[in-house]
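TICKET: design request
STATUS: open
ATTACHED STRUCTURE:
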C-alpha cells in the first residue's frame, strides 16, 4: 500500500497556467464541484454542439446554430480542462476519474463530428468518418499507455486541433456572407464544414501514425 495520491497523465495545456483558469478551478473546488460531474457536463456540451451543427440546415437557425456549435465546443474543452484541475485541487484524482475523463470525451468527439457532417455545407459520410478517426486517434494514445509507454498527445490533429478547426469553420460559416462561403462542386458538392472534416480525417490519420511510431520507439527503449 502507498499513501502517494493517484497522479494521472494529463495532456499538456498552456491554458492550465492562466490566471483565469486557476481562478475558475479554485472557485469550483471551493463549491465542492465533482470532477466527474464536470466531465459529464463537458459531454453534454459536446452533444449540444453536434445538435447545433445539425440545426444549421434550417435557414432560420443557421447563424445562431453555427455560433452555438462553436460556443458548445469551447465549453466542452473548458470542462475537459477543469475536471482535471478540480480533481487535483480537491485531491479526488482516481482511476475511476480517468474513466469519466475518457469515455465522455469519446462521446463528445462522435457527437460533434457526426453533427458537423449533417451541418449546412457538409457531407454526412465525412462526419461519420471523422468521428471514427478521432476515436481511433484517442485509442492509439490509450493503447500506448496500456502497453507500457507514456500517453502520446502529439498532433497534427489531436483533440484541441480538431476542435479548433471545427470552431473556426463554424464561426466563419455563421458570420460570413453566403457569397464568401467556399464551395466545391466536384466530386461532391461540399462547403467549408465538409472541408474541415476532410482536414480532420487526413490529419487524424497522420496523427495516428505519428503516435504509433513514437509509442513503438518508447516501448523499444523500455525493453532495451
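STATUS: resolved
RESOLUTION: sequence designed for all positions
ATTACHED SEQUENCE:
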Amino acid at each position: 500500500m502507498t499513501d502517494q495520491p493517484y497522479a494521472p497523465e494529463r495532456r499538456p495545456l498552456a491554458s492550465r497556467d492562466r490566471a483565469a483558469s486557476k481562478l475558475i478551478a479554485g472557485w469550483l473546488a471551493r463549491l465542492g464541484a465533482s470532477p466527474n460531474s464536470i466531465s459529464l457536463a463537458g459531454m453534454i456540451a459536446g452533444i449540444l454542439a453536434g445538435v447545433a451543427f445539425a440545426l444549421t440546415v434550417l435557414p432560420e437557425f443557421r447563424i445562431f446554430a453555427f455560433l452555438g456549435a462553436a460556443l458548445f465546443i469551447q465549453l466542452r474543452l473548458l470542462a475537459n480542462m477543469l475536471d482535471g484541475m478540480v480533481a487535483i485541487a480537491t485531491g479526488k484524482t482516481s482511476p475511476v476519474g480517468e474513466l469519466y475523463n475518457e469515455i465522455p470525451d469519446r462521446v463528445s468527439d462522435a457527437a460533434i463530428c457526426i453533427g458537423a457532417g449533417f451541418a449546412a455545407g457538409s457531407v454526412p459520410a465525412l462526419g461519420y468518418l471523422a468521428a471514427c478517426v478521432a476515436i481511433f486517434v484517442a485509442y492509439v494514445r490509450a493503447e500506448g499507455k496500456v502497453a507500457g509507454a507514456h500517453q502520446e498527445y502529439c498532433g497534427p490533429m489531436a483533440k484541441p486541433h480538431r476542435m479548433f478547426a471545427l470552431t473556426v469553420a463554424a464561426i466563419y460559416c455563421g458570420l460570413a456572407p453566403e457569397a464568401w462561403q467556399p464551395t466545391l462542386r466536384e466530386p461532391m458538392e461540399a462547403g467549408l464544414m465538409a472541408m474541415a472534416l476532410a482536414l480532420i480525417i487526413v490529419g487524424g490519420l497522420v496523427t495516428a501514425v505519428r503516435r504509433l511510431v513514437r509509442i513503438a520507439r518508447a516501448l523499444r527503449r523500455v525493453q532495451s
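CLOSING REMARK: Helices lie at 19-31, 35-55, 62-90, 95-117, 124-147, 159-175, 192-223. The chain has one domain: 16-223.
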